[in-house]
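A.,

Following up on our hallway conversation. Structure tokens first:
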């Protein structure tokens, strides 16, 4: 049985997830609240198996380097379609003119690149990588037995925005329908922003999927 803690970051109200068993910790999308993120890691007090990223927009990667600096040998996993976005501010969006009130976000290259539909076991925690692009080219979701983490693809009552670089609404909706809404209806959905939901709730009540 896995435990999950959520920390909502001030920048973009992005959700960072801490997933752990009795031996290891996985960190999903470490956002802007670096001190709180590091404090949560210390409180959980388990070795970090990996940082796994649903995509690499700046609000989802802002504390990656701080975690790497404080803890030893923390591998980062990312979609190959967005690997270079980590260290390219114009691609992770932190370098755009509209964000000139913040520093560029530059993350060193990831140690590993995900393969779509592969099953992974990191720190004795197993999940499958599902491609859910459309918010960004390399958007992926992580399917665990107890829940699915959907990044900025599927939210409670809506979907991710598609007006950013490489965004595509048709691709996003199709990916959600084929990869996520086919999952068991009772499965909990943990999104990159906002509150949790279920597959059933989104199939029945999300306006983007009502016939």
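Then the amino acids I'd put at each of the 211 positions:
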């Amino acid at each position: 049985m896995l435990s999950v803690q959520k920390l909502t970051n001030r920048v973009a109200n992005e959700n960072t997830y801490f997933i752990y068993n009795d031996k290891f910790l996985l960190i999903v999308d470490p956002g802007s609240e670096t001190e709180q993120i590091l404090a949560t890691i210390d409180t959980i007090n388990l070795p970090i198996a990996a940082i796994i990223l649903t995509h690499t927009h700046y609000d989802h990667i802002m504390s990656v380097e701080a975690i790497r600096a404080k803890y030893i040998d923390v591998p980062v996993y990312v979609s190959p379609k967005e690997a270079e976005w980590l260290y390219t501010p114009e691609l992770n969006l932190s370098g755009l003119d509209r964000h000139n009130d913040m520093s560029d976000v530059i993350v060193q290259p990831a140690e590993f690149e995900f393969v779509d539909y592969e099953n992974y076991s990191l720190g004795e925690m197993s999940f499958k990588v599902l491609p859910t692009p459309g918010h960004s080219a390399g958007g992926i979701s992580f399917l665990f037995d107890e829940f699915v983490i959907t990044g900025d693809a599927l939210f409670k009552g809506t979907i991710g925005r598609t007006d950013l670089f490489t965004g595509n609404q048709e691709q996003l909706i199709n990916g959600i329908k084929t990869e996520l809404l086919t999952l068991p209806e009772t499965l909990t959905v943990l999104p990159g922003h906002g509150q949790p939901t279920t597959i059933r709730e989104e199939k029945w009540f999300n306006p983007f999927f009502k016939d």
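Helices lie at 34-44, 64-70, 89-92, 169-180, 199-205. Curious whether your intuition agrees with the design.

B.
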